[in-house]
């Protein structure tokens, strides 16, 4: 499956072959898992997960791709199963006691405290920041007028979005410091130690802790000073996420360390995920030039000029369907897991206390039992069509569903619309590498496309 995808086929010919992950062929032992997963978790996910809806993995692992089982485990009988130790070991040092890893009452309190921040009524404020970044990204591509690494430029853009909405308006903090701090921080999260994957106790030192102490400490310090400074000089009317965060904390206080944990959780969960979705979305459109023209026409009709506004987003249903199809084929959260804390039987499969339940979203979204032409891009797959619950879960499901899902969809719509309106993308001669999976799924290297003014 390492076929390199290049030129797109004109309409009417066979659909172009898209780059896909290299999943594991043959039996995977626990030792294979420990040896290989640190570099790329895809290398230990069995290829059979693409053609079967349930598979028993090594030791206590299960791979679940059956929509009813997925729903029952995430939103039904298994909804209280905690995040897997495996996840905790990978990102725990970075996001501490933030929402993504808390459990029980601690998690409930944080989820309730932060839910209003992500509420739909706050999205218009955030959209104006996203639109500014979108225009800058389009300017960048037009200036480049030739080959560009869209994976890198998308990261720069979503990093700018995060520093605008979460660390903004603070003259004492240099934007470049924020970006550099965040880049080092997410590089750290992306690197998984073998010990983490094996779940060795915390007292066994990890090489990455030596490497990472500094970026984590300095980003935490930066986040803390940004919160404190803004608390001292608040805007009358909330202008960004930080204002909203401080407003939420005023009515329901938490200690500053937990707030810092959560700010970093939002960086960790929200920057690379969105960036990579943009990069894959542009790649898919370079592979399907006729769809790209159709989307450009839709955006131009909806928003001929000026910043893309929140109110205009519902008038671009094809673009939304494209983004959903991008998240089907290249889901940034390509795998997540739970540890069973009691025994449950669902559709004749018994998950025992202590078992590790893997949700290989990548395989679920491309499973040939569930999807017609599973590996083929179809922009209209999500236009006026709903799928059974549990079959499409780019943001998870149940109580732990992604709190940033609407934030992410809004950001993706605005950035994609701003760019597509003014820039045309086509494939270059540079091969695109298969995606790899660490904390999130990311491109296996650069994605070099040709960009020109449209
Ligand atoms: C395309 C973008 C994104 C994707 C694909 C994505 C995917 C996911 C998935 C699959 C989960 C559930 C994991 C599980 O059940 O174990 C999750 C949880 C979470 N996401 Fe996202 N996410 C995205 C963007 C964001 C953004 C922008 C933010 C915040 C600014 C965010 C914050 C979170 C948080 C805090 C959680 C944990 C929620 C909880 O445990 O209660 N995500 N995300």
Quick recap:
By secondary structure, the protein is α+β, with helices and mostly antiparallel strands.
What is this structure's SSE topology?
Elements: H1 30-36, E1 54-56, E2 61-64, H2 67-75, H3 85-95, H4 104-114, H5 123-144, E3 146-149, H6 150-166, H7 175-190, H8 194-198, H9 207-232, H10 241-251, H11 256-270, H12 272-287, H13 289-302, H14 317-329, E4 336-339, E5 344-346, E6 349-351, E7 356-359, H15 361-365, H16 405-422, E8 423-427, E9 436-437, E10 441-442, E11 448-453
Parallel strand pairs: 2-7
Antiparallel strand pairs: 1-2, 3-11, 4-7, 5-6, 8-11, 9-10
Helix pairs in contact: 5-6, 5-16, 6-12, 7-9, 9-11, 12-14, 12-16, 13-16
The structure holds protoporphyrin IX containing FE (HEM).
